[in-house]
């Protein structure tokens, strides 16, 4: 489970420090999101859970006249996003919980998100709130992971870790796989209609550069399912995990990069308010 508290603390801090490598891991998704909104009208665009702001900045390039607001619950990530957006006046970033955020510029025409909506404590309430902040018939476009078993970077790493007792018994706890079930996504989209859920596959890049294997190992040490587990493992278990991770990463080293197949849903919907 990764909820608001983790993003406001250690997880957000690590993602902000590692924004270049987290961007790289998701970079192949951005053109698909830009294509999905290419024909959506609207000048007031909100990037939900914008993180270090890559999608917001890509939107600013693609939509010269639009005003883009990135909102995120992590102060560290918003600070990283603001640093990157110096000199881009059409983009602003706010520290805010999407479930209670209010627009200073009037209702939004278009909500977008690259993997920023799976961490809400109460998704139906958060999406209903966003629908109330939307212009009549505003559109929503977001990506989210499909099941862990379809995302080798997560399932193969989890297989190397000792089994752990689930911390919560909720069926869809906030976290990277909270929206793996498309029926659950539809249930969560309170206040939105015409929901479409389409599968999309992309290459999750974990390592590149001079030594892609070492790069991927240090990336997984900081980000993702292994990062917190590694620290709590006893020495013997950690050594065995690290050997397994090295084998896994080496097996995915092809053409100067360490890549894993990743599987997402591309979700679109219309605000049910006009
Ligand atoms: C997986 S990261 C994706 C970040 C960014 N969209 C990207 O593609 O790099 C999830 C983001 O959602 C943010 N987040 C989680 N819960 C949130 C909430 N309730 N309101 C706003 N942002 C939230 C986190 O702080 C984090 O930046």
Overview of the structural elements:
This protein has a single domain, classed as Rossmann fold (3-Layer(aba) Sandwich), CATH 3.40.50.150. The two termini are 36 Å apart. With 274 residues, it is an alpha/beta fold. It has helices at 4-8, 10-17, 19-26, 30-37, 54-62, 75-84, 123-132, 152-160, 182-188, 212-222, 225-232, 235-251; strands at residues 44-48, 67-72, 91-95, 108-114, 134-145, 192-207, 253-254, 257-271. It is 40% helix and 25% strand. Bound molecules: S-adenosylmethionine.
Give the overall shape, derived from the CA principal axes. globular
SSE succession: HHHHEHEHEEHEHHEHHHEE
Distance between the termini: 36 Å
Described by strand count, sense and barrel closure, the largest sheet is: 8 strands, mixed
Write down the Rg. 18 Å
User: Which superfamily, in CATH terms, is the homologous superfamily?
Assistant: Vaccinia Virus protein VP39
Keywords:
single chain, alpha/beta, 8 strands, 274 residues, binds S-adenosylmethionine, eight-stranded mixed sheet, 12 helices, Rossmann fold, globular
Topology of this protein?
Layout: H1 4-8, H2 10-17, H3 19-26, H4 30-37, E1 44-48, H5 54-62, E2 67-72, H6 75-84, E3 91-95, E4 108-114, H7 123-132, E5 134-145, H8 152-160, H9 182-188, E6 192-207, H10 212-222, H11 225-232, H12 235-251, E7 253-254, E8 257-271
Helix pairs in contact: 2-6
Bound molecules: S-adenosylmethionine.
Concise structural overview:
By secondary structure, this protein is an alpha/beta fold. It has helices at 4-8, 10-17, 19-26, 30-37, 54-62, 75-84, 123-132, 152-160, 182-188, 212-222, 225-232, 235-251; strands at 44-48, 67-72, 91-95, 108-114, 134-145, 192-207, 253-254, 257-271.
């Amino acid at each position: 489970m990764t909820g608001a508290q983790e993003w406001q603390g250690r997880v957000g801090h690590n993602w902000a420090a590692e924004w270049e490598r987290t961007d790289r891991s998701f970079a192949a998704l951005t053109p698909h999101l830009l294509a999905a909104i290419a024909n959506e009208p609207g000048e007031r665009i909100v990037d939900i859970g914008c993180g270090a702001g890559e999608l917001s900045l890509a939107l600013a390039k693609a939509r010269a006249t639009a005003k883009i607001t990135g909102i995120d619950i992590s102060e560290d990530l918003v600070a990283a996003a603001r640093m990157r957006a110096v000199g881009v006046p059409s983009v602003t970033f706010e520290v805010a919980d999407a479930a209670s955020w209010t627009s200073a510029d009037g209702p939004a025409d278009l909500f977008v998100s690259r993997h920023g909506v799976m961490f809400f404590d109460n998704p139906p309430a958060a999406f209903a709130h966003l629908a109330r902040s939307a212009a009549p018939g505003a559109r929503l476009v977001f990506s989210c992971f499909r099941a862990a078993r379809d995302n080798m970077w997560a399932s193969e790493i989890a297989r190397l870790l000792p089994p752990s007792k689930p911390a919560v018994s909720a069926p869809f706890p906030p976290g990277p796989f909270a929206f793996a079930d498309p029926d659950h996504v539809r249930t969560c989209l309170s206040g939105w209609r015409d929901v479409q859920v389409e599968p999309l596959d992309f290459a999750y890049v974990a390592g590149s550069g001079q030594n892609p294997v070492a790069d991927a190992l240090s990336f997984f040490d900081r980000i993702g399912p292994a990062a917190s587990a590694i620290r709590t493992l006893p020495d013997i278990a950690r050594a065995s995990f690290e050997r397994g991770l090295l084998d896994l990463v080496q097996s995915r080293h092809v053409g100067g990069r360490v890549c894993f197949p990743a599987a997402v849903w591309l979700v679109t919907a219309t605000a049910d308010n006009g």
